[in-house]
C-alpha cells in the first residue's frame, strides 16, 4: 500500500482501540514511509539522516528532529508552489517563531484527524461555542497565526461562535451574558488556551465577584501549564476553579504541538492523555536520549502520521512527561497513556538546543 492508502486505513480505525503492538506495526510502517519521503524530498533532513533504515526498525528506532530546528531552518518536503500556507508558532517576544509549511494534502489530513478525535468527545452535532479569546482581527503578529489557527481548528465543531474577551483581554460581559442567557440549558462547547482561560476568564470572574452558569458546558483547553505552575495552579485546582465560577463540570485538557497540528492527545476521565491511532509518544532520557521505561519521566518525543509536506512526523519536544501504562487505562482506551509535567528547566534547554544546532 502507498502512504496515502495506509494513512486512510489508519484514519479509518477506531481512534482509541488499536492495541500498542498493532499500532507499532501499522503506524510504524507509515512512519518509516514518511522517513523515506522526507529523505528524498527535504535536503536538510537527508543531510541529518542520510542512512537508510531497516524495514524492521521499530518506532523507537526512527530518527527524530529537535522541535527547535523548525525555528532555525525552513524545512519542507514539497515544492514551493505546493505550499498552501505557512504556520508560525507563538514564540514569545524576541524569540524566532517556528515555520511550518503545509500543502493541501497535509492540511486536509490534519482537519480530518482532528474531527475524528474530537467527535469521540463531542459527537457529530455542532454546538454553540464560547471562545475564551478575542477576535482574530484584534490579534497581531505571531499570536495571530498560532492562536487563530488553534481556534479555527476547533471552531468547525461550533456554531454561534461568541468571543468572550475584548481586544485588551478584559471580559466582554455583554457577549458572555447574552451567550449564557441563550444557551444555559443546552450542551455548549467552550474553548481557550489554558493560561488565558485561567487568567482572563476564571480569575476575572472571581475578582469581580461574578459567576456564570453553563452546567452542560464542555471546556477544552490546551497550551501548557508553565505560567500556571508559577501560580501553583495544577490540573485539579484549574478544574475546581472553572466549576466554581462557571458551573462547567466537563473540562478536558489536551496536549499538542503547533508543529503537529491535527495531532492532539486528549485527557480522559482518569486524568491521562491518550495517543490516537495516528500518533504516539516516546519518553526519552534527558541525558542519553534512550527510551525511558513506563513510569519514568523523560523528554517527550511525539510521532504523527500526518506531516507529509514538512519533516515533522517525529519530533523531540522540550517538554517533560511520563508514560503511566500501555493498553490498560481504566477508561478503556488502548495504547499508551501519559501525563505532561512541564518544560525542561532553562539551563538544560540551552544544552539541548546547542546539541540541535550542532547537528545541523
Ligand atoms: Zn484513560
From TrEMBL:
InterPro entries: ANL_N_sf, LuxE. It comes from the Bacteria. GO terms for molecular function: long-chain fatty acid--protein ligase activity. This is Acyl-protein synthetase. Pfam families: LuxE. It comes from Alteromonas lipolytica. One of its GO terms (biological process) is bioluminescence. Residues 14-356 form the Acyl-protein synthetase LuxE domain.
Amino acid at each position: 500500500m502507498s502512504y496515502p492508502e495506509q494513512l486512510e486505513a489508519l484514519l479509518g480505525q477506531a481512534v482509541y482501540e488499536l492495541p500498542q503492538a498493532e499500532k507499532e506495526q501499522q503506524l510504524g510502517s507509515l512512519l518509516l514511509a514518511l522517513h523515506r519521503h522526507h529523505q528524498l524530498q527535504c535536503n536538510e533532513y537527508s543531510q541529518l539522516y542520510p542512512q537508510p533504515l531497516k524495514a524492521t526498525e521499530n518506532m523507537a528506532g526512527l530518527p527524530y528532529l529537535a522541535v527547535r530546528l523548525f525555528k532555525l531552518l525552513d524545512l519542507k518536503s514539497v515544492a514551493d508552489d505546493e505550499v498552501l500556507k505557512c504556520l508560525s508558532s507563538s514564540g514569545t517576544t524576541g524569540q524566532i517563531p517556528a515555520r511550518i509549511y503545509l500543502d493541501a494534502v497535509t492540511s486536509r489530513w490534519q482537519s480530518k484527524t482532528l474531527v475524528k478525535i474530537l467527535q469521540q468527545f463531542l459527537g457529530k452535532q455542532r454546538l454553540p461555542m464560547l471562545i475564551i479569546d478575542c477576535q482574530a482581527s484584534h490579534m497581531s503578529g505571531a499570536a495571530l497565526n498560532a492562536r487563530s489557527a488553534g481556534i479555527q481548528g476547533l471552531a468547525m465543531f461550533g456554531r454561534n461562535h461568541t468571543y468572550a474577551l475584548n481586544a485588551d483581554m478584559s471580559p466582554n460581559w455583554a457577549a458572555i451574558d447574552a451567550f449564557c442567557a441563550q444557551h444555559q440549558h443546552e450542551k455548549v462547547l467552550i474553548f481557550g488556551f489554558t493560561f488565558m482561560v485561567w487568567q482572563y476568564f476564571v480569575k476575572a470572574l472571581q475578582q469581580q465577584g461574578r459567576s456564570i452558569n453553563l452546567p452542560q458546558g464542555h471546556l477544552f483547553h490546551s497550551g501548557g501549564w508553565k505560567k500556571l505552575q508559577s501560580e501553583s495552579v495544577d490540573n485539579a485546582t484549574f478544574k475546581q476553579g472553572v466549576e466554581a465560577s462557571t458551573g462547567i463540570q466537563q473540562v478536558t485538557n489536551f496536549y499538542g504541538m503547533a508543529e503537529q497540528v491535527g495531532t492532539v492527545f486528549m485527557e480522559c476521565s482518569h486524568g491521562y492523555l491518550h495517543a490516537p491511532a495516528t500518533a504516539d509518544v516516546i519518553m526519552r532520557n534527558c541525558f542519553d536520549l534512550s527510551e525511558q521505561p513506563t513510569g519514568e519521566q523523560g523528554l517527550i518525543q511525539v510521532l504523527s502520521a500526518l506531516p507529509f509536506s514538512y519533516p515533522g512526523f517525529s519530533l523531540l519536544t522540550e517538554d517533560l512527561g511520563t508514560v503511566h501504562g500501555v493498553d490498560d487505562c481504566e477508561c478503556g482506551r488502548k495504547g499508551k497513556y501519559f501525563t505532561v509535567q512541564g518544560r525542561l528547566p532553562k539551563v538544560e534547554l540551552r544544552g539541548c538546543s546547542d546539541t540541535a544546532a550542532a547537528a545541523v
